[in-house]
Amino acid sequence: MRANSPVVVGRDAEIGLLSSALDAARRRSGRALFLVGEAGVGKSRLVGECAYQAYGLGLPVLRGRAGSTGLIVPFRPLMEALSSHFRAAGTPTDPELVPYHPALARLVPEWRGATHPGHSETVVELAEALLRLLSVLGRESGCVMLLEDLHDCDRETVAVVEYVVDNLAGLPVLLLGTLRPEPGAALDLVRSAEQRHTAAVVDLRGLGDAEVRALTGACLETPPEQIPEAVQRRLIERAAGNPYLVEVLLDDLLETGRLRRTEDGWEAAAQPDGALPSRILRSWTHRLDRMDEPVRDLLLTAATLGGQFSVSVLQTVTGLEDRALFTHLRSAVETGVIAPDGAAPDRYTFRHTLTAEALVSSLAPAERAALARRAASAVERSGEPLDEDRRQLVASLELAAGNRAGAARQFAEAGRRMLASGSHGSAVVLLERSRSLAAEADLSSVTESLAVARAESGDLDGALALAGSLPPVPAGSRAAAARGDTHLRIAWVAVMAERAVDTARQTAAASALFGPSPSPARRASLSVVDGHLSLLPGERRQEPGVVEKAAREAAETAEAEGLPVVACQAWQLLALLSREKGFDAADLCLERMLSLSTEHALPLWRVEALVRLGVNAFMRTGDAARLHAARGAAAELGSLLLAQTVDGLLAMNAVMCARWEEVEEITGRSVEASARIGNHGAHRYLLLAGATAAAHRGRRRETERALAAFRRAGGEGSALEPLRLGLCGAVGALLDEDRPRALADLEASAAWERDHPSYYYLSGRYGLYPLLGVLAGVTGREEYEAVAATPGADLAWNRQFLDLAEAVLLGREGNRSGAEGRLAAFDARSAAFPVAHHLGLRLVAEAAFADGWGEPAVWLRTAEEYFYAAGVQPVAAACRTALRQAGVSVTQRRGGRDRIPSALRTNGVTPREYEVFVLLPDRPGNQQIAQRLSISPRTVEKHLASLLGKTGRPNRSALCEFAAECLADQP
After folding, report:
1. Residues 6+ apart with CB under 8 A from 385
2. Which strand ranges, in their side-by-side order, compose the sheet holding 347-350?
3. HEC-encoded secondary structure of 800-834
4. 864: helix, strand or coil
5. How far is Cα 35 from Cα 710, in angstroms, rounded to an integer?
6. What are the b/e assignments for 381-401, b being 16+ CB within 10 Å?
7. Is residue 85 pLDDT above 60, yes or no?
8. For residue 967, what are the contacts with CB-CB under 8 A and spacing of at least 6?
9. Is 113 a residue whose pLDDT tops 70?
10. Rounded to whole angstroms, how far apart are CA atoms 663 and 657?
């Protein structure tokens, strides 16, 4: 008879909590719940109960667990969880998941055909993709993900779980995790989530005396009071409330016959304190002694390999033939000690982690070390390549055998391989383990690898501290070259993070270690980092020609030395520098970067090249076709970070082309998602695109709200400042008919760019600013020609305004046909940009009237029609005023009642009064209102008096407050 309880005892409150969480998931109220407790306290029983309830409710259940072998296997519990469901239900075929297949390919083997061997998706990309998958699986009735033994899992899984936990609100998902209260990343995550109120945490206590009695009764299928009191008392004393220990100790009593069933009930055959094991170790020692010797030896060897073990590795260590091996395994399964691992057909697992630990502890220390040494040697001599799992197993066995230095070397090599594969968090764990064991001779090289792993995992400060702690090495030695490479890799991370001071220190350290004559490859890498460093805001810039020459030499050297990544970095830098010569030169650099990345299977760099080529194409022509293709390539690659970056560019292109629905669709799908995964650059650009869209529609309050969000995201003072001032602020001011504010924004943008030189050209400096200067009479032919000769003048957005500027200059010079020719060029070039086209017509019409060229009356009517239909009343009104001043008849606009809120409309507020009303939240004076609407101050007074009467407000201040309240939610 096996002593296993068929029911869960003493956990009614916890089961109630699980039931409530399942109900919440069905109502799309996502929850995260963690069970924390010592081994054997009942965590897995509660997980099983949750799974049972979920199956009964028809919810998909995904169940996985971390390995207890001590091996670091990135994402193992997640892979096991998805496999457990897809094995029976099949992989989902929902079209909305297709963009996430590449990111999920590490977890779902069926989707690995979509992967690119040179790309490792980031943890946040994979986490977001997993969140989308869970949302789809739970769409109908909710779903449950059960992750056990998180204390044993890898750092990458912890990061994914943290992301999922933080973003479950509003999703039909329950995440239930279990772990021991052992210090580590998993426990830190759980306690942090508890403090943030994004997860509930249950600390499982041991059972009380009455509950132990009830559990004993359940195991023996007997009322507790009918079990001998001596047995109950000893179980309470020995098990300390641990349900697993209760069952194991009870098993031992039953197997030895010290507790047996008689006709009169249960009877304790003896009451010996010495006979009843005082610890679980003694219990398992007795059980092993009763097993056949081959089965006992097999189990001891298996336990040495860990709580889970591979059949192939066990066979390698034992040397048993298939028939004998599986005969012994079946016998071990029949004893209840081990069971097949349902998630992996080649693996078995001990019934409980404590079982393996107890079996190993039953051996004498010398015997334990000898067994581990023999197992390590067998695995290494097997002829099988040491993959990451086997290498970590060998390291653990070497450590168990007492060979700390050998274990350190194996852990270090496993960590370096993890680092090369992009599993930075797991690499850090393995390299830290190696560093704690390494012999003095190996310590520096392990620390160097750990410093790089920390930098590339995002812990740049930790990397810098480690690099700074390294002892000096002899100049010119092989160790000096390796140390220099470490500093150089950290420097690249620092320059990409825009940490100029740290970058400079790391490159200086690398240069000193390489000496005056570094190898060509190292000189190329240094040049690339130095070149990117010189472009950072606030840095003392080298002469562009010097930087370009060094970058070109670096690109050529890197290609010759077989360093395609360094070559791509160099060509990327050259593409930025070459913009000063023109976009054809920049595109040549990017085409070379594209060719190299394709040839050497570097998909991330390939997409980078496609994105930059797409950006150049849309800036030059306004056509975003190539940028859309780059977005598709980023999605195919599974790079959410790049895809969101392209989304920001596409959104801004849509703004310039007045495709408002497209802007809303892009920002709607990517603004929150980019913030969620920490893609801060893309998030800020998307927010700015939204603000610019509102500005280009003449929606001032909506623009201000969007810019407030942009500032909260750290946008103010960033490299996007010129775009905020020029493309957003100046155009918005012109649509408010506030030309002084537009000029002020453009001047501020130009001043910022003088202090922070950049290679981005849509801020107005090369188009709108010169046009307004020409119209104001402060920019002449010479200044215009200087701007027109720059590469920025080749961009379609800028060139349309320069066409207008030249037309005005030609008109002033009396060259009517020349002016009209430039206007015709403007018409053709600006066709893709409706807002800019009609705004341009409005801006130059008065100059054309004054100088007698073109058809300004036609232009003003065209612009008035457009802006009136778009609801941009200040410009529409200004067009009508300009027509009247030119003596042209104007059709009076009496429509627009549909734009008036119903509460005002029912009080008789007219469209013209409403135009005044919408300006009042800013508390302008009558003269300002008159200028904005192109009406007289006296007319403004009449409209205000009428509004006071119709709204029942006692004075102007109250009317302004009422306007602010009414319009708070209006665009």
Report:
1. none
2. 308-310, 347-350, 338-340
3. HHHHHHHHHHHHHCCCHHHHHHHHHHHHHHHHHCH
4. helix
5. 39
6. eeeeebebbbbbbbbbbbbbb
7. yes
8. 701, 918, 921
9. no
10. 10
**Eight-class DSSP state of 152:** G
Q: Which tokens sit at 781?
A: 């032919």
Reference 250, options 2, 40, 11; nearest CA is 2
Closest CA to 496 of 681, 761, 674: 681
CA angle 762, 768, 772 (to 5 degrees): 155
Q: How far apart are CA 942 and CA 931, in angstroms?
A: 16
pLDDT 10s digits, 434-482 = 999 999 999 999 999 999 999 888 788 999 999 999 999 987 789 999 9
Phi and psi dihedrals of 34, rounded to 5? -120, 135
Is the Cβ–Cβ distance between 446 and 431 less than 8 Å?
Answer: yes
Name the helix (H) or strand (E) containing 961. helix 956-966
Measured in whole angstroms, how far is the alpha carbon of residue 100 from the centre of its chain?
13
CB 613 within 8 A of CB 623: no
**Which helix or strand (DSSP H or E) is residue 308 part of?**
strand 308-310
d(CA 60, CA 615): 43
Contact 192, 184 (CB under 8 A): no
The backbone region for 66, taken as left when phi is positive above 0, alpha when psi lies in -120 to 50, beta otherwise, is beta
Give me the phi and psi of 901, to 5 degrees please.
Answer: -55, 145
d(CA 107, CA 662): 33
Is residue 713 within 8 A of residue 680, CB to CB? The reply is yes
CB-based contacts of 424, cutoff 8 Å, min separation 6: 418, 453, 456, 457, 458
What six digits make up the tokens of 22? 């399942």
Q: What is the pLDDT of residue 276?
A: 35
Backbone dihedral angles phi then psi of residue 775, each to the nearest 5 degrees:
-60, -35
Asked whether residue 938 carries a pLDDT value surpassing 90, the answer given is: no
Q: Would residue 311 be called left, alpha or beta, if left means φ above 0 and alpha means ψ between -120 and 50 degrees?
A: alpha
**What residue spans of 306-387 are helical by DSSP H?**
311-318, 322-334, 353-361, 365-380
- Picking from 338, 331, 343, 385, the residue whose alpha carbon sits closest to that of residue 107 is 343
Residue 266 structure tokens: 């249960």
Query: How far is residue 86's CA from residue 60's CA, in Å, rounded to a whole number?
Result: 10
Report whether 181 contacts 38 (CB < 8 A): yes
Residue 804 vs residues 773, 774, 811: alpha-carbon distances, Å: 12, 9, 10
> 99 with 133: CB under 8 angstroms?
no
How far is it, in rounded angstroms, from Cα 913 to Cα 909?
6
Euclidean distance between CA atoms 828 and 822, whole angstroms: 10
Measured CA to CA, the distance from residue 655 to residue 658 in angstroms comes to 5
> Is the CA virtual torsion 412, 418, 421, 425 positive or negative?
negative
Please state whether 510 falls in left (phi above 0), alpha (psi between -120 and 50) or beta.
alpha
Cβ contacts of residue 750 below 8 Å, gap of 6+?
763, 765, 769
**Cα–Cα dist 261/252, whole Å:** 14
pLDDT, tens digit, 9 for 90 and up, residues 319-366: 899 999 999 999 888 877 888 887 677 888 887 666 787 788 888 889
772: Cβ–Cβ under 8 A, 6 or more apart, which residues?
Answer: 739, 742, 743, 746, 843
d(CA 838, CA 827): 10
Note the helical H segments in 757-795. Answer: 768-776, 781-788
Task: Give me the pLDDT at residue 278, please.
Answer: 41
- Residue 278 · residue 35 · CB < 8 Å: no
Q: What is the DSSP letter of 174?
A: E
Residues counted in the chain? 971
User: Are the beta carbons of 390 and 305 closer than 8 angstroms?
Assistant: no
- Residue 957: Cβ within 10 Å count: 10
3-state secondary structure of 177: strand
* Tokens representing residue 86 in the block: 């897809």
* Residues 6+ positions from 573 with CB-CB distance below 8 Å: 528, 531, 532, 535, 547, 551
